[in-house]
Design a protein that fits this description.
Helix content of chain B: 25-40%
Keywords (chain A): Electron transport, Mitochondrion, Transport
Order of helices and strands of chain A: EEEHEHEHEHEEEEHEEEH
Number of strands of chain A: 13
Structural class of chain B: alpha/beta
Number of helices of chain A: 6
CATH architecture of the largest domain in chain B: 3-Layer(aba) Sandwich
Largest sheet of chain B: 7 strands, parallel
CATH class of chain A: Alpha Beta
GO biological process, one term (chain A): fatty acid beta-oxidation using acyl-CoA dehydrogenase
CATH topology of chain A: Rossmann fold
Order of helices and strands of chain B: EEEHEHEHEHEEEEEEEEHEHEHEEH
Largest sheet of chain A: 9 strands, mixed
CATH topology of the largest domain in chain B: Rossmann fold
Distance between the termini of chain B: 51 Å
Radius of gyration of chain B: 21 Å
Radius of gyration of chain A: 21 Å
Subcellular location (chain A): Mitochondrion matrix
CATH class of the largest domain in chain B: Alpha Beta
Oligomer: heterodimer
Number of strands of chain B: 18
CATH superfamily of the largest domain in chain B: HUPs
Number of domains of chain B: 2
Strand order of the largest sheet of chain A: 9-8-7-10-6-1-4-5-11
Shape of chain A: globular
Largest interface: A-B, 78 and 89 residues
Family (chain A): Belongs to the ETF beta-subunit/FixA family.
CATH superfamily of chain A: HUPs
Strand order of the largest sheet of chain B: 7-11-6-1-4-5-12
Strand content of chain A: 25-35%
Shape of chain B: elongated
CATH architecture of chain A: 3-Layer(aba) Sandwich
InterPro entries (chain A): ET-Flavoprotein_bsu_CS (IPR000049), ETF_a/b_N (IPR014730), ETF_b (IPR012255), ETF_beta_N (IPR033948), Rossmann-like_a/b/a_fold (IPR014729)
């Protein structure tokens, strides 16, 4: 078994979490013009955790590589990852195309092979498509162990990894040797802000651009968007003035 | 064709989320085969006999399946789907267990699963929320076998019929997996209250409650009065008022009870994604501008320390 950990952190560029996305006129996507994009919050936590693991386990982490699959503007989220402490990065430039999680996992498998990564830490879901699949799919393609929704990660001396994970109704603890894929829950850590000097320094760190054609993967989508609509809005009801009125209104609505 | 549905069990009982999965399966229209694995699955099979459209029950009681480790469950599901070309759909509840192994199965079979479907349009077309529920996607799958997780709150749990069906039971052996992941322990928040995911009434607290003490002292008596489950906003979880497993929202549980009482919750997009499909929403907040009032059926503005005890007393 390798005694060194080579971490891979996939990061996605998504519409900033604080913004409410608007459906486009053709109803097949959301408006992206003039909209602020950021690193997917769960992926930000993944980068933070990779850096934390390096800090708390002296000499154990050999490298941290960040990868993004997206348009050339996704270089921004890679620079965020580099500024936070990733050593190197690569962008798989797919232009404005959107890929299924299956295609994304196939690309990530290629990057893992190239990097010789044995620990992959990634967000449990991207907040745009909300699929929550890529980590598990990549684990399936690689035949690796997986620990999803991690709320605590501990690297043991024998290089096994203990992961506390959020499950319905509580937490579960699992242990696995490397290689392993971990997906992050929001409670795993609190990402620090990236300072401007660190951002400036990150510009000097390696950022390699890869063309998807060179990876020899069929990126064709299995899913066809029929339409994208806004949900039927909920109408605001009434405001009452007292607890008594509240109770009678609840009775009227047959809620109690 | 037919539909394979994975049913999760707890203590020998089929979970409510799994019963919702059966409902989604009946809407596809094909006969249903259900899969039950791990301890208590034979016990739960007795319940499966009474579910609508169930033609066959596959059971594996191997203890390797006890905690639904995806590394163990996937090889079994992959084998079943490969051996029976009649299965055109495979559905799982969108529980943490279902969402954990379904994509793994998809990757191994080179299929692209659909996450958290909320509506069956036709055999190949489904509706699912994206962007934290701010957009509703109608999507058509080109896969030969369609894999999907089913959002429990979007489908009524299937009701047991009074007489058992003539479904056949097949026991299957453990499928060798090469798994290296070890289950160590689990800590479940046990409570006398109904489970948050399936409760008819939910009382939920946010940052408007100033402390853990206030959260406990105001919400639990009200919840007791209504036989309700207790939920929370992410802000309340982050502030340490309660356990993360109570979180309702895009990053927590997505629920749709008959009555949702939001106490001191402002109504961030993230939170609304988790509860806006509730039948009746009641909001109590001291800030009359709080966005929660834009989605609530009944709102009351005022001091929580006065209102909640009064409400609890008068109900």
């Amino acid at each position: 078994m390798s005694s060194k950990i080579r971490i891979l952190v996939p990061v996605k560029r998504v519409i900033d979490f604080a913004l409410k996305p608007r459906i486009n006129k053709t109803h097949d996507g959301v408006e992206t013009q003039g909209v602020k994009f950021s690193i997917n919050p769960f992926d930000n936590i993944a980068v933070e955790e990779a850096v934390k693991i390096r800090k708390h386990n002296k000499g154990v982490v050999e490298s941290i590589h960040a990868v993004s699959i997206g348009p050339s503007k996704a270089k921004d989220v890679l620079r965020t990852a580099l500024a936070k402490g990733a050593d190197t990065s690569s962008l798989v430039d797919i232009g404005s195309k959107e890929l299924d999680p299956l295609a994304v996992s196939k690309i990530l498998k290629k990057i893992q092979e190239e990097q010789g990564s044995n620990l992959i830490i990634m967000g449990r879901q991207a907040i745009d498509d909300d699929a929550g699949q890529t980590g598990q799919m990549l684990a399936g393609l690689l035949g690796w162990s997986q620990a999803t929704n991690a709320s605590k990660v501990t690297i043991n001396e024998d290089m096994t990894v203990e992961v506390e994970k959020a499950i319905d109704g509580g937490v579960e603890i699992v242990k696995a040797p490397l290689p392993l894929i971990i997906t992050t829950d929001l409670t795993l850590n609190e990402p620090k802000f990236v300072t401007l000097p660190k951002m400036m320094k990150a510009k000097k760190k390696p950022l390699k651009v890869v063309r998807p054609e060179d990876l020899g993967i069929n990126l064709e989508s299995r899913l066809e968007t029929v339409s994208l609509e806004e949900p039927v809005p909920r109408k605001a009801g009434i405001k009452v003035k007292s607890v008594d009125e509240l109770i009678s209104k609840m009775k009227e609505l047959k809620a109690i | 064709g037919s539909t394979l549905a994975f049913l999760e069990t707890a203590g020998g009982q089929i979970t409510p989320a799994s019963l919702s999965t059966v409902t989604a399966a009946t809407q596809i229209g094909d006969p249903i085969t259900v899969l039950l694995v791990g301890a208590g699955s034979m016990e739960a099979a007795k319940q499966a006999y009474k579910l609508p459209s169930v033609q066959k029950i596959i059971v594996s009681e191997s203890e390797k399946y006890n905690h639904y480790l995806p590394e163990e469950v996937s090889p079994l599901v992959v084998k079943l789907l490969k051996e029976n070309s009649g299965f055109k759909h495979f559905l799982v509840p969108a529980s943490t267990a279902g969402k954990n192994f379904l994509p793994r199965v998809g990757a191994v079979l080179d299929l692209q699963p659909l996450s958290e479907i909320i509506k069956v349009v036709s055999a190949d077309t489904f509706v699912r929320p994206t962007y934290a529920g701010n957009a509703v996607l109608t999507v058509k799958s080109k896969d030969d076998v369609i894999l999907a997780s089913v959002r429990p709150s979007a489908f009524e749990p299937a009701a047991e019929e009074s007489t058992a069906t003539s479904a056949s039971v097949e026991e299957v052996d453990y499928v060798k997996s090469g798994n290296k992941t070890e289950f160590i322990s689990e800590k479940l928040i046990t409570s006398e209250r109904p489970d948050l995911s399936s409760a008819k009434v939910v009382v939920s607290g946010g940052r408007g409650l100033k402390s853990k003490e206030e959260f406990d002292q105001l919400l639990y008596p009200l919840a007791d009065k209504l036989n309700a489950s207790v939920g929370a906003s992410r802000a309340a979880v982050d502030a340490g008022f309660c356990d993360n497993s109570l979180q309702v929202g895009q990053t927590g549980k997505v629920i749709a009870p008959n009555l949702y009482i939001a106490v001191g919750i402002s109504g961030a997009i993230q939170h609304l994604a988790g509860m806006k499909d509730s039948k009746v929403i009641v909001a109590i907040n001291k800030d009359e501008e709080a966005p929660i009032f834009n989605v609530s059926d009944v709102g009351l503005v005022g001091d929580l320390l006065d209102i909640i005890p009064e409400l609890t007393k008068k109900l």
